Amino acid sequence: MLYRIGRALFRCFFTLFFRMRAIGMENVPKHGAVVLCGNHTSLLDPPLLGTPLKRMVHFMAKAELFNIPVLGSVISKVGAFPVKRGGVSRDSIRLAVQLLRDGNMLGVFPEGSRNNAGGMGKKGAASLALKSGAAVVPVAIVGNYSLFRRMTIVYGKPLDLSAYAGASSEDLELATEAIMKEIRRLHRTYSKT
Questions:
Q1: Intra-chain end-to-end CA distance of the chain, in Å
Q2: Along the 193 residues of the chain, how does pLDDT read in single tens digits?
Q3: CA-to-CA distance for 106 and 36, rounded, in angstroms?
Q4: CA-to-CA distance for 25 and 169, rounded, in angstroms?
Q5: pTM above 0.70, yes or no
Q6: Edge-to-edge strand order for the sheet containing 135-142?
Q7: Which residue of 11, 20, 64, 173 lies most exposed, with the fewest beta carbons within 10 A?
Q8: Which positions fall inside the Phospholipid/glycerol acyltransferase domain (predicted)?
């Protein structure tokens, strides 16, 4: 219930202040495990990633956020779970894989942090998808959150990562690069529109 209310409020916020436009929502499976992989430039990226969709999107969030009164409780209730700074713990990975095996949707930013925007992706998203059998949907967030300027979120077609199912370090790097390449392609394509 809280998630639906928050999504409705964010939809109004993004539509009013950033002229939000969502493209390709039909590419996101309506059921089953899904990893949404998006580029990351702002603290507003996580709510923007999930706002246009009817399904709940779970996110990993910095453990410190869960210690902030009220905020920690709210983000827990809307599907976020903690990850320690400096690396993802085994507990966080296990929880993420279990959420996916239970047929949920997880939002991941393969770049890892806003400071790494445009850099080489981290292997976590590919690893989670391959371990759980989840569909991987590349997502491009286009725009810079300037007031009353268009923000576009583009959901690409699910990627076939079956060629990287060996899950070796090299396979994960190649799978991650395939994800990042498609995110960059979507971003370039829709930056021009």
A1: 35
A2: 888 999 999 999 999 999 999 999 999 999 999 999 999 989 899 999 999 999 999 998 888 888 888 888 888 888 888 887 666 678 888 899 999 999 999 999 887 654 444 443 478 888 899 889 899 999 999 999 999 999 999 999 999 988 888 768 888 899 999 999 999 999 999 997 6
A3: 6
A4: 31
A5: yes
A6: 21-23, 152-155, 135-142, 34-38, 105-108, 57-62, 80-83
A7: 64
A8: 34-144
